Amino acid sequence: MLCQKNEPPWDFLLSASRNSLHSYELSRLGHSANLRKEIGALLDQWLEENACAMLARWLIEQRERPPRSSDSSAIEGPIPSDEPRNVSDNVFADWPGHPGRRPQPGIR
User: Are 16 and 24 in contact (CB under 8 A)?
Assistant: First the structure.
């Protein structure tokens, strides 16, 4: 991708009529819009390529991990009910009709 330094055509701009300046402005805005579309397409492509690379990296790391034995994945006993639960354990606790949901005052 070439990085061009655009110098405005000063001689033309300073001597141009109102209609010519208007046409020049519209042409520059059109060119700017086209560049923006190209940048958007490049960003989408860049994101897709990075996502694929990250997936490959994750798969590499998963294959390098030692396999877990079935004993180490078991929970070390039941979770006591009197201890506060982690937020992820109560994902549906706020849903109406959930058995663990406490009614709020003034709301039925």
Answer: yes
Say if residues 92 and 98 touch (Cβ distance below 8 Å): yes
Could you list the mean pLDDT of each consecutive 10-residue stretch along the chain, which spans 108 residues?
75 93 96 97 97 97 85 55 56 56 57
Long-range contacts of 20-26 (CB under 8 A, 24+ apart): none
CA-wise closest residue to 1 among 29, 48, 39, 28: 39
In whole angstroms, how far apart are CA 6 and each of 2, 9, 20, 40, 80? 12, 9, 19, 22, 70
pTM of the full structure: 0.48
